[in-house]
Write a sequence for this structure.
């Protein structure tokens, strides 16, 4: 990848650079399928971030160095 050479999908898969390969006509469908499978519902992610952030607040209030 640092040699500016270009490898095709089968070679990238063979050397473990790619997780899988698909033919050219299937790229869009495969990409959409992966995105749908890995996407979290929109309402779950902000709630998770908020809960994790707020969970640290009591611990930070009791320390002299709130960043430590």
């Amino acid at each position: 990848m640092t040699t500016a050479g270009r490898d095709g999908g089968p070679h990238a898969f063979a050397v473990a650079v790619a997780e899988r390969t698909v033919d050219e006509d299937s790229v869009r469908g495969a990409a959409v399928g992966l995105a749908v499978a890995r996407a979290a519902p929109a309402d779950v992610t902000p709630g998770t971030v908020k809960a994790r952030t707020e969970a640290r607040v009591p611990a930070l209030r009791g320390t002299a160095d709130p960043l430590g």
